[in-house]
Amino acid sequence: MAKPDDHVERVIGTLNSGSAAARSRLAASWQRSWLKHGIDPGGTAASSALDGDRLREGREALAHVLAVAAPKLDDLYAMIGHCGCGILLTDAKGLVIDARAGAADAEVFRAWGLAPGADWSEAAQGTNGIGTSIAEERALTIHRDQHYLAQNIGMSCIDAPVFGPDGGLIAALDVSSARADQTEGFNRLIEAMVTRVAQAIEADLFRNAFPRHRIVLAAGADPGWRGPSGR
Question: What is the pLDDT of residue 215?
């Protein structure tokens, strides 16, 4: 793993490049973190404290999403929780509203800020799995030193956005790990699972929104179809 000072030097070098953002989505996100959000890569997150009031409001606003997602988060945790991974669900602004983590890992995840009430938007944390997935509306993995803040380079974050029945982004699903031995290959396997679970949440939300309508799937279509977003 890169040292914090080396990471900051690498980020600044990328920021000073006139063409890096055009060549790389990661560099473009680093540029947003610096130019749009004014975050120092060697600093600390703008909002590291858990916000109880926002958490209550977020959970109330997405109660219907939590009801659909909860059993799927449980199933996903049952499959990968033993690997030291934590599972997070956020609202569309990157606020963590639900989480799954083993008892042995819970304190570690809380120390990393991976807990309900934490803000993982790009505006608060710079480039990270949750915030960048929301900003770019796509599934992605931010592995260790791909994070913008040096304080976050010890973790891997695998994410997929969740779209509502109207096609608008309403949440993000995240699997995070701070294991030093977690490889990029393993992350790719988890990314496929995270994307699949996000699709299943979307499909159930769509069906719940139109309970009296017949939904017709094309021949060969995946029954876990994502709904009207088509993303």
Answer: 67
